[in-house]
Design brief:
The complex is a heterodimer. Chain A has helices at 13-24, 57-69, 134-144, 159-170, 188-192, 198-213, 291-310, 319-336, 363-369, 378-385, 398-408, 417-421, 432-438; strands at 6-9, 29-32, 75-78, 81-86, 92-96, 101-105, 109-112, 116-118, 131-133, 152-157, 177-180, 218-219, 223-230, 233-239, 245-250, 252-257, 259-261, 278-281, 354-356, 361-362, 430-431, 447-448. By secondary structure, chain A is α/β, with parallel strands linked by helices. Chain A folds into three domains: 6-117 and 261-313, FAD/NAD(P)-binding domain (3-Layer(bba) Sandwich), CATH 3.50.50; 120-257, FAD/NAD(P)-binding domain, CATH 3.50.50.60; 346-408, no CATH class. In chain A, helix 2 (57-69) links the parallel strand 2 (29-32) and strand 3 (75-78). The two termini of chain A are 42 Å apart. Chain B is α+β, with helices and mostly antiparallel strands. In chain B, 29% of the residues lie in helices and 26% in strands. Chain B is built from eleven helices and 22 strands. Chain B has helices at residues 16-27, 61-78, 98-113, 123-129, 151-161, 206-210, 230-234, 244-248, 291-304, 350-366, 380-383; strands spanning 9-12, 32-36, 51-52, 86-88, 91-94, 118-121, 140-143, 147-149, 166-168, 172-177, 183-188, 191-194, 197-200, 216-226, 239-242, 256-257, 265-268, 274-277, 281-282, 312-324, 330-333, 340-344. In chain B, the strands form four sheets. In chain B, strands 5, 6, 7, 14, 15, 17, 18, 19 and 20 form a nine-stranded mixed sheet that branches. In chain B, strands 9-2-1-13-22-21 form a six-stranded mixed sheet. A three-stranded antiparallel sheet of chain B has the order 3-8-4. The chains are: A alpha/beta, B alpha+beta. The A-B interface holds A 87-89, 91, 93, 102, 104, 372-374, 376-377, 379-380, 383-384, 389-391, 393, 424-426, 429-433, 435-436, 438-439, 441, 443-449 and B 39-42, 46, 152-153, 156, 159-160, 163-166, 168, 226-227, 250, 253-260, 286, 288-292, 294-296, 298-299, 301-302, 308-318. The structure holds flavin-adenine dinucleotide. Residues 12-18, 35-38, 42-45, 47-51, 151, 171-172, 201-203, 205, 209, 221, 223, 278, 319-321, 344, 346-352, 354 of chain B line the site of flavin-adenine dinucleotide. Flavin-adenine dinucleotide (FAD) is lined by residues 12-18, 35-38, 42-45, 47-51, 151, 171-172, 201-203, 205, 209, 221, 223, 278, 319-321, 344, 346-352, 354 of chain B.
Chain lengths: 449, 389
């Protein structure tokens, strides 16, 4: 039996739960986390010297459980270490930012538990300084305990905006307003579905109570259309449900249009155990179901990998049923927060709207590229259009570019985000000095030709 | 054959060679079907460095072809077809150590004898000429009058300029010939396509279509692209090629070469990024980069241009060059198969040669006189009597 360690990528609930179950089965585990602290998006731990952000009793209990689960000799936790992918020779590559070296290993299996990424729909001015993502702002608050100065507008869609606003109110710094594209109160029947999921509902109720008490304006069925820099700050244009426009001025904007799997550039899950290393996905990066489900999914995948590696049958557990319940809750939330008006298709945004922030590529660039008799496919759009070619390697734009391309060329097969991002190492930019430091193999013997 | 405009012509492969051929035919008013198993530039053309260069060549047939290739790039650029897709710049062959300096000297003479403009720069001139270079560099020769073009970019622009359409996702399985050897059509995974003439420009896929065994070999190359670094980029006057590259290409016969065929070319791109290569690996069939090779190339690159150590690598990739066992491409009419043309086996030169070979094949199909002597590349040397369904 292959006694090499299992590599678990990601220090959120799914990764921690998977590591604990693998250790239960006697497996050695390397748990890598890119950030300086464990916790993932929800349980992000503060940097040393900062008190943890309060997350409620259920959350605290979950974190205590997860943290205790990995306190064991079989599990080696490596912070500030990124998974770069698997190379052409079959080596798994780790970017250790503490030692400044790229390391190679051959794990018995890889559990990818890299969580979710935030979606931000491109709109005019979204690339300006002072515009962040709501999740980014929240992580900063959790890590540093600090909220940036000035009037902060939260805009986009989804329960995260409400949670963030509630946390800001609790910290004594209410946001200027929440602008919500959906109209949650217009779906009482759908909303009733949430009663089956009392945990998240109670949490939401707590945030809402705080938001109302602090009189934070909650503009529903309203879309943030554009952001412009002015001397007084960022002027944002809001469009309400009747199409009426209004401008308000704030210092910062935090955008958020939901989340999706952070599946960017990583190797695909293995169909069978025979392919080495065996690759499995767990938590939000496999399917966005939220923090509680991520723990369940991580534990399930940890058990499954341990069984596969041992050649044992895979036990059926209650996990599938509990994941189905979480899926149902997510469906209800999606209906509750459905946009009140269909969003403007990306390809019909003003031509100068930035699509790819890294390379400054615009909607107009894409429209021009896709004109003409021949319709380029996903990889061609990437290469020739320089979309998803920059430092983020498509993490933020590939989705929108693929969607817009499909809209522009209904006559051609629609490109997928993966056509644009590819699945090769390095999944993130990596220091050249670190790669050179990894090159410890002696010079190859030379031979005459 | 019938008059060119009546011919039903099919081209197999939308790499730079197939697309160039279609482009020149379209310009002459002759439409073609351009059949491609995946997508334009899906294979070698989309994974190449893009040197449009003779810097590493010895005088001979390939040098002459490459000079014609460079001239055509200039012509297409002047006509606006490439619209900035061809960057004119010198290549600097840089020596480190006495042995490499000696190789350079001989190489400079050979290039000059073929009429290439070569300038020698002594060690003392390098700090001003190329401040980003390591102080270890001991002299360089500058090869003038060449340039750089990115394969997928050229392909896209040619498709645009001639309003070509590519039939993506069509794999040609075999040629269909009549009993007297005349071409009837092609069998594809989407059914039969009738054609009076076919150009096989299918890179590594050509061997199967031609029934060739042991003649074409994949030779893998691994490359990488860095993030942008405009200041460092501006501190290099052109492409930097290690004199050791000449050894890797085995142009200097008998010199030791590693099995990976490590060489070093550092290309400052217009974007402010650097394109760095690479390897020449025999019989590696998977076009995937590995960290050992990329780490090795980067170590060499940092030794040559120390400032690269501060940058991040954005992408590493690999491509398969299609090499012919005798080192010369296969270009021209296939013997025995009326209406069958071949243009493949360009190994590490197809970006430079693609357009000019496309024009040459188009001329042959159009019944125009040849502007380039193709006899050294005659596919007949391997194919005599082979093409038969
Ligand atoms: C790493 C690397 C670096 C390089 N650097 C340079 C350089 O600096 N300068 C230079 O000049 N050249 C360079 N080259 C070489 C250059 O890339 C190639 O010589 C050139 O791209 C070959 O073009 P092609 O059209 O012949 O083949 P390809 O680009 O390989 O195209 C062949 C096409 O045919 C298709 N195909 C194959 N079989 C079938 C079938 N049965 N049916 C339908 N379609 C099929 C394929 O999908 C492919 O798209 C480099 C190559 C590599 C790999």
């Amino acid at each position: 039996m292959n006694r090499a360690p299992v590599l678990v990528v990601g220090g959120g609930p799914a990764g921690l739960a998977a590591a604990a179950r693998l250790a239960d089965a006697g497996r050695a585990v390397d748990l890598v986390e890119l950030r300086p602290a464990l916790g993932g998006a929800y349980h992000r731990r503060p940097i040393p010297g900062v008190a943890p952000w309060p997350i409620g009793r259920a959350g605290e209990a979950r974190w205590t459980r997860l943290a205790a689960g990995i306190e064991r000799p079989e599990i080696r936790v490596r912070l500030r270490t990124g998974f770069l992918g698997v190379d052409g020779a079959g080596f798994t590559l780790l970017d250790d930012r503490t030692t400044g070296r790229v390391e190679t290993m051959r794990p018995a299996a890889i559990v990818i538990a890299t969580g979710a990424v935030e979606m931000v729909r491109p709109r005019s001015g979204w690339e300006l300084p002072g515009v962040t993502t709501a999740g980014g702002l929240q992580v900063m608050m959790k890590e540093t305990g600090r909220i940036p100065e000035g009037r902060i507008l939260l805009a986009g869609s989804g329960p995260l905006l409400v949670a963030l606003a509630g946390q800001m109110v609790a910290a004594g710094r209410p946001p200027a307003a929440i602008v919500e594209t959906g109209d949650p109160f217009a779906h009482p029947i759908a909303g009733l579905g949430l009663l089956a999921h009392p945990g998240p509902l109670l949490e939401a109720a707590g945030h809402m109570a705080r938001i109302f008490a602090a009189r934070v304006p909650w503009r529903r069925a309203t879309t943030l259309e554009a952001i412009e820099p002015t001397d007084a700050g960022l002027a944002v244009t809001l469009v309400d449900r009747r199409g009426a426009r209004e401008r308000i001025v704030v210092d910062r904007v935090a955008l958020h249009d939901g989340i999706r799997s952070n599946d960017h550039g990583f190797p695909e899950a293995s169909p069978t155990a025979s392919a080495l290393p065996f690759v499995a996905w767990a938590g939000d990066c496999r399917e966005v179901l939220g923090v509680a489900a991520a723990e369940i999914d991580g534990a399930r995948i940890g058990e499954e990998i341990a069984a596969r590696l041992a050649g044992a049958p895979i036990a059926t557990t209650s996990a599938i049923r509990r994941l189905a319940a979480a899926r149902q809750a997510q469906d209800v939330l999606a209906r509750v927060f459905a946009p009140a008006r269909p969003p403007t298709p990306i390809e019909r945004l003003p031509r100068e709207t930035i699509l790819c922030r890294c390379e400054g590529r615009t909607v107009g660039d894409l429209v021009d590229l896709l004109e003409g008799a021949d319709a380029p496919g996903g990889r061609e759009i990437k290469l020739s259009g320089r979309f998803s070619m920059g430092a983020c390697q498509g993490r933020f734009c590939a989705h929108w570019v693929a969607e817009a391309a499909a809209g522009l060329r209904p006559d051609a097969p629609p490109p997928t985000p993966h056509d644009l991002t590819g699945r090769r190492w390095p999944s993130r930019p990596v220091s050249i000095a670190a790669l050179v430091a990894s090159n410890s193999s002696p010079d190859e013997p030379t031979r005459p030709t | 054959m019938a008059s060119p405009s009546k011919l039903r012509i099919a081209i197999v492969g939308a790499g730079i060679v197939g697309v160039s051929t279609a482009f020149f035919l379209a310009r002459a008013g002759v439409g073609v079907r351009l059949l491609e198993a995946h997508a334009p530039a899906a294979a070698a053309t989309g994974a190449a460095d893009g040197a449009v260069s003779v810097a590493s060549k010895r005088p001979g047939a390939m040098m002459n072809a490459a000079l014609a290739g460079i001239a055509l790039y200039r012509e297409l650029a002047a006509q606006g077809v490439l619209d900035g897709g061809f960057v004119s710049r010198s290549t600097f062959l840089v020596a480190v150590g006495a042995a490499e300096a000696a190789v350079l000297d001989g190489h400079a003479e050979a290039l000059a004898s073929a009429g290439v403009e070569v300038v020698r720069h002594p060690t003392s001139a390098l700090a001003r000429l190329a401040p980003a270079l390591s102080p270890e560099a001991e002299g360089a020769i500058e090869v003038r009058g060449e340039g750089h073009a990115i394969g997928y970019d050229v392909v896209r622009r040619l498709i645009r300029a001639a309003e070509l359409t590519v039939e993506r996702g069509v794999t040609v399985r075999n040629l269909v010939q009549s009993s007297d050897g005349g071409l009837v059509g092609l069998d594809t995974d989407r059914g039969r396509i009738e054609a009076d003439a076919v150009v096989i420009a299918a890179g590594g896929g050509s061997a199967e279509l031609l029934g060739l065994d042991g003649v074409l070999r994949p030779r893998r190359g691994q490359l990488l692209v860095t993030e942008r670094a405009p200041a460092l980029n501006a501190a290099l006057p052109g492409a930097i090629m290690s004199a050791r590259y000449l050894l890797s290409k085995a142009s200097a016969k008998g010199a030791p070469v590693s099995p990976r065929g490590y060489g070093l070319v550092i290309d400052p791109l217009r974007t402010g990024q650097f394109l760095v290569g690479g390897t020449r690996e025999n019989d590696a069939t998977r076009p995937i980069a590995d960290v050992e090779a990329i780490g090795h190339v980067l170590a060499d690159a940092v030794a040559m241009v120390p400032g690269l150590a501060k940058l991040r690598l954005l992408r590493a990739f690999a491509g398969l060059r299609t090499a012919v066992v005798d080192g010369l491409p296969l270009i021209g009419r296939a013997p025995g198969g009326d209406g069958v043309f071949v243009a493949t086996g360009f190994e590490g030169d197809g970006i430079c040669l693609g357009p000019v070979m496309g024009r040459t094949i188009a001329d042959a199909l159009l019944g125009r006189p040849a502007t380039l002597d193709l006899s050294p590349f005659d596919p007949g040397r391997f194919l005599a009597g082979r093409v038969a369904a």
